[in-house]
Amino acid sequence: MNDPVIEIRDLDFFYDPGKPALRGIHLSVGRGECVGLVGPNGAGKSTLLLHLNGVLRGRSEVRVLGLAMIRANLREIRRRVGLVFQDPRQQLFLPTIEEDIAFGPLNAGWPLDKARQQVAHIMASFGLQDVGDSSPLHLSPGEQKKAALASVLVMEPELLAFDEPSSGLDPASRNELIELVQGLPQTRIISSHDMDLVRVLCGRVVVMDGGRIFADGPSEAILGDSALLKAHRLA
After folding, report:
1. Nearest-CA neighbor of 96 among 55, 136, 46, 57?
2. Computed over its alpha carbons, how large is the radius of gyration of the chain?
3. Is the dihedral of CA 166, 91, 100, 201 positive or negative?
4. What whole-number distance in Å separates Cα of residue 159 and Cα of residue 78?
């Protein structure tokens, strides 16, 4: 694979001794790919995503953007990898949306003028300029999702990892989010139960179950295999 962004070899991870959450994971993702990660609840999808910026570290060889997942590289990896959580309230914790979006650049030591310009640009791109002074608690679920994504994109990451991006959204907000994600240039890996979203966004699909990868291939082939999907409790 040319220019791999994610390289994982034989990843095992245990939350509790004797109970593996991930078992023998091998995964490579090339630059510019959009990969769907599907599987039933408890398959290990979210656990795998948390290995992409070192929130979790199991027994394995993990390289992201050419950097080994070791303590000395964590700051640089986390600067270049953006995680977008299922619940936006895990990412929106300040009094206003504008403060939440500005938190990353300011915490990273960006010059104030550069941070302000980038925040204004991202907020305008996402149609959030009119709610910048609002509390995240006062926004609709769709606006919260957009604000959480904006708070990640403001840092200009090269790799984006989404955990259930359409969860809790009404059809209009879901479609708006799909259009936003579809237009992003970054390499993307998307964990989702929403097969239609995966079909629209992802050229490749990985099926997980019980902490293992059971299938990996073009989305048309994987999502068209009804026996495979049924075997892993997917619609």
Report:
1. 136
2. 18
3. negative
4. 10
Asked whether residue 124 carries a pLDDT value surpassing 80, the answer given is: yes
Per-residue pLDDT tens digits for 18-58: 788 999 999 999 999 999 999 999 999 999 999 999 999 98
Say what the pTM is.
0.92
Task: Say how far apart CA 123 and CA 120 lie, in whole Å.
Answer: 5
Torsion of CA 83, 40, 210, 37, to 10 degrees: -40
**How confident is the model over 128-142, as a mean pLDDT?**
90
